[in-house]
Design a protein that fits this description.
The protein is an alpha/beta fold. The chain is built from 15 helices and 22 strands. The longest helix has 21 residues. Bound molecules: nicotinamide-adenine-dinucleotide.
Length: 484
């Protein structure tokens, strides 16, 4: 494309510390969402590559140096990787912008967070303690935390670098080895991070990376009986297949799936503070965020005022400028563009406003102007389903009880936000909302490396981020010692 091609990794997998072509030699093209052009190739892997990667990870776990690393040594290596990622924020961000389409400012933030995850979990690697359990006289009972073994991590395309930090870092911190399957739709920053891991000295086989099609290589990895645990982030449809595959091998999994997250705005809210957040929580990453605040519930007494303010903000959004101040880029692919446009065209709900596509947006890119729907029937398709694009639904409500019913009235339950100055409501509502995170007078999941994150029902199960992720990526062993 331009001099950025200098940073593009070769179409190879990382297996046992070596960059190698897929066993079949097949590659597949990487299309930039910015202009629809092919600008790189990746390995198109299959089950034979999975066999090699899982076997390398198994050997590294049982016989390799990884098992002999102390927790503090593991942690130091991870912090070294965090430092290398930090040094490469700019090139990684440019790679991500080309690959995923997100504006460079957002891509830069992703890289900073990717580094932060390795720093956080690197620093935590030697701080996971077991417990001593009081039992009968003359017994010592210890509860130890052990790694699962070989962990398969399967990721989507929307925040590849951050998601590597979120899932791979805690897995490694606990002493597991990893086979990572990146998304075929955006994986170049992930491959570059893996290069940096090799460079800072991760032993062969500890961190293996595969690219290729989900239904081929992702499926083979999730079904492989050499895998001890699966961390999956992606769609509910594939998440269901992953859970079945895990069940067939009697291993555990975490599923980080989709969402239709509500932001509930009460009449006593600080609207000046809320307004920019209500918009950004949706349009960030062109609406392709699992925790996007894609439903705004507005108390009826302030509905007209808030809807009018949202309308003017939506009409001011220009997509595809890709300059330093760009707030929204293209969606990931032609397929995703068609999917989002289909939802918009098929909806029978009233449209309040549309943003526009910049005259300077490159030809052939996958740009979708954001759309504001409202007042929406909370049971309509557009207010129920995860569009995963720049579509915001506004829904009026009368009182707290109705707000809770609407907020909980989808199959999803990932994140919710409440905008209110009422102190007792701030305490009451989080308990009533069915989801994994509740924000009060703020919103955002992506930034909080320290904050446990995950869903209920169709949003998945298990918790990543924060210290608790270290528990997901380990299991308990109880040792009962009779010394009488
Ligand atoms: P996806 O489920 O299609 O793909 C995710 C990953 O699974 C990719 O690497 C893909 O190659 C792989 N895959 C596809 N089919 C597979 C199969 N049969 N077996 C094994 N692996 C397979 O999802 P996507 O389109 O990449 O991402 C969008 C979805 O991800 C949205 O629903 C979004 O909400 C969700 N998501 C959730 C979170 C979260 O943390 N909860 C974060 C980001 C994205």
């Amino acid at each position: 494309m331009n001099d950025r091609t200098l940073t593009i990794p070769q179409p190879f997998n990382l297996i046992n510390g070596e960059w190698i072509a897929s066993q079949t030699g097949q590659t597949m093209p990487v299309v930039s969402p910015i202009d629809g052009r092919v600008f790189a190739e990746i390995a198109d892997s299959d089950a034979s590559d999975v066999d090699l990667a899982v076997s390398a990870a198994r050997t590294a776990f049982t016989e390799g140096p990884w098992a002999k690393f102390t927790p503090v040594e593991r942690g130091r290596l991870m912090i070294k990787l965090a430092q290398r990622i930090s040094q490469e924020v700019e090139t990684l961000a440019q790679l991500e912008t080309n690959d995923n389409g997100k504006p460079t400012k957002q891509a830069r933030a992703d890289m900073v967070f990717a580094a932060r995850y390795f720093e956080f979990y690197g620093a935590a690697a030697d701080k996971v303690h077991g417990e001593v359990i009081p039992f009968l006289n003359d017994y010592d009972v210890g509860m130890y935390r052990e790694p699962h073994g070989v962990v398969a991590v399967i990721l989507p395309w929307n925040y590849p670098a951050q998601q590597i930090g979120r899932s791979v870092a805690p897995a490694l911190a606990m002493g597991n080895t990893v086979v990572l399957k990146l998304s075929e739709d955006a994986c170049l920053s992930g491959l570059r991070i893996a290069q940096l891991a090799v460079e800072v000295g991760f032993p062969a086989g500890v961190f293996n990376v595969l690219t290729g099609r989900g239904e081929i290589v992702g499926k083979a990895l999730s079904e492989h009986n050499g895998v001890d645990f699966i961390s999956f982030t992606g769609s509910p449809e594939v998440g269901t297949m992953i859970q079945i595959a895990a069940a067939k091998n009697y291993v555990g999994c975490t599923l980080e799936l989709g969402g239709k997250s509500p932001q509930i705005v009460f009449e006593d809210a600080d609207l000046e503070a809320a307004m920019p957040v209500l918009v950004n929580a949706l349009i960030q990453n062109a609406g392709q965020t699992c925790s996007a605040g894609s439903r705004v519930l507005i108390q009826r007494s302030i509905y007209d005022q808030v809807a009018a303010e949202l309308k003017s903000r939506f009409e001011a959004i220009e997509v595809g400028t890709n300059d330093e101040n760009a707030i929204m880029g293209p969606v990931i692919s032609e397929k995703q563009k068609q999917r989002v446009e289909r939802y918009i065209a098929n909806s029978d709900q009233p449209v309040i406003a549309r943003g526009k596509i910049s005259a300077s947006a490159p030809e052939g890119g996958f740009y979708v102007a954001p759309v504001l729907f409202g007042p929406c029937d909370p049971n309509s398709e557009i207010a129920q389903e995860e569009v995963f694009g720049p579509v915001l639904c506004v829904i009026p409500f009368e009182d707290e009880a109705e707000a809770i019913a609407i907020a909980n009235g989808t199959d999803y339950g990932l994140v919710a936000a409440i905008w209110t100055r009422d102190g007792s409501r701030q305490k009451r509502l989080p308990k009533a909302l069915h989801c994994g995170q509740v924000f009060i007078n703020n919103f955002g999941a992506a930034g909080g490396v320290e904050l446990p994150f995950g869903g209920v029902r169709k949003s998945g199960h298990g918790r990543e981020k924060g210290f608790v992720a270290l528990h997901e990526f380990s299991r308990i062993k109880t040792v009962v010692n009779y010394y009488g």
